[in-house]
Amino acid sequence: MSVAAPEHPAAVRRRRVGQERLPLPALLLAGLAIAFFALPFVGLLWKTPWGNAWSILTSDSALTALRLSLWCALWATLAAVVFGVPLAWLLARVSFPGRGLVRALCILSMVLPPVVAGVALFYSLGRRGLLGQYLDRWFGFTLPFTTVGVVVAQTFVAMPFLVITVEAAFRQLDTRFEDAARTLGASRWYVFRRVTLPAIRPGLIAGAVLAWARALGEFGATITFAGNFPGRTQTMPLAIYLTNEIDPDEAIVLSLVLIAVSFGVLVALRERFLGGGRPPAA
Amino acid sequence: MTLDARIVRTLGPFRLDIDLTATSGETVAVLGPNGSGKTTLFRCLAGLLPIDGGRIELDGEPLDDPAADVFVRPEHRPVAVVFQDYLLFPNLTALENVAFGLRARGIDKADARSSAASWLQRVGLADHAHHRPRTLSGGQAQRVALARALATEPRLLLLDEPLAALDAGTRGDVRRDLRRHLATFDGVRLLVTHDPVDAYALADRVVILERGEVVQTGTLADIAAHPRSRYVADLIGANLLTGTGSNGTITTSSGGRIVPAKPVDGPTFAVIQPHSIALYSTPPGGSPRNVWPSTVIDVDRQTERVRVRLDGDVPLVAEITPAALDALALKPGDRIWASVKATDIATYPA
After folding, report:
1. Which residues of chain A does B82 touch, with a Cβ-Cβ cutoff of 8 Å?
2. How many domains does chain A have?
3. Fewer beta carbons within 10 Å, N or C terminal of chain B?
4. pLDDT-derived band of residue A281, with 50, 70 and 90 as boundaries?
5. Of A179, A190, A198, the CB nearest to B104
6. DSSP codes, A129-160
């Protein structure tokens, strides 16, 4: 590696004026990265059949898939919050042997290929599965190929996003505020509701949004575990995959809807909760 | 009302082992350097840390007694705390902060708020009721924290370094206000601090805590007159020497010989004020009984006086005038003689 000769002082001074500038190669690479992210969407827009987009969008099959997607993702997010917050609390606050392993296990589904997650769910909660056979035998209840199965599959892959975000929030929390609340006469539950929860709120919202986005886009685990039945288990990603074979125009329009919904949520929440905007105060 | 505590608590290599009593109407300051166990003591009294041994009792009612398997949880103790940097809940207004303890006890919102409002008025912050903590000054935040603690009507009030979070400019005023507000609270008042000025200004009685043990207790004047540890001696700027007295002489562990005005026997403390020490560049004439050859370690020139640190059989800090410094032309490494009159050496049994 060669060391560049120091620049003329005047040149240095001139550069200080205005904003910080990246070296040209870095700027070029960053620009390419942005183009890389933008290009597919431009391609989609370019191919969009604007003429009959509205009729495709308001068709029964599209609306059904969209409605199912939104509902399932919402329920999966709720389940992730209800189970994930206590789990994050346990991982952040309670020191127990094997905590590292438990944490790895609980976020494994985040890095697993979703199809693998679907197969694993099938052999544990399916009709012949480890636990599923008893659900069937005792309660006459089967998960695969049902809407509840979709929610289970989505929760399985989406909850880790909430858990790691909320765990980080718990770790950053100054526990002395909770101590202060205790000395003022607050029970543990009251402390959690009035002190802990407000303090981790930004992390909780960020985690819930990430989990929701992951659930909304979930494909592999859903199709493996819950199948592809319109109105029951066919969410938007599944509908898009299917119609892309039959009617590409419809697939494009459905894709745009999914993009619009996800992008809208990210933009709305970016500055407050996802670390964008101004850097946090020291 | 009385606090009667014997606290034993081990945290890793550290061990806190103290006896502490305090009665209502008096303010007791626990004064000690960092790491002396102040925070541990504090957490044990508040119930945030259970004790390993001993017993904490308030008005005869046990709060923590491991032998009897009694542990009253912090939310059920009649103990309120003003924390260092106050820990006001940032998402609540001043009024909601003060009302917090009442709401937590199940008092309905309207009553809790009206009670909180009267507490804010008492500490002179009625017009800041709807301010968030981040918009309050340090002194205002402290008064809100005090109101929040007192609103729960505790019988023991703990204050943890109540003035440490303030800048020097406002500290004096806040200290005076705090003293006034403390006087209106008729329970047991205990404050923990590393600042002797706070202890002097706020407390009736001082407990000196060092390495987890009480080394001295009494009024600050008593303690200053008879320091029993280097920490206290350093606080008041005096030389504290320990040795064994016999035949009219005190022999220190480093081999120095001190001759006090009155003979003493056995383990003895000797206190020498820095300004009573005279320095000579040649052995002094006459018959002073206490003359020690010394080496100058460093010279700290302040505006009105000069502190000279000396090493020798009797290590000392001497205080001389700038004129004397110029006459002696002292610099580190110089060999000189330090002398003190026997009547300027205070002695008391160790």
Report:
1. none
2. 1
3. C
4. very low
5. A190
6. STTHHHHHHHH----TTSHHHHHHHHHHHHHH
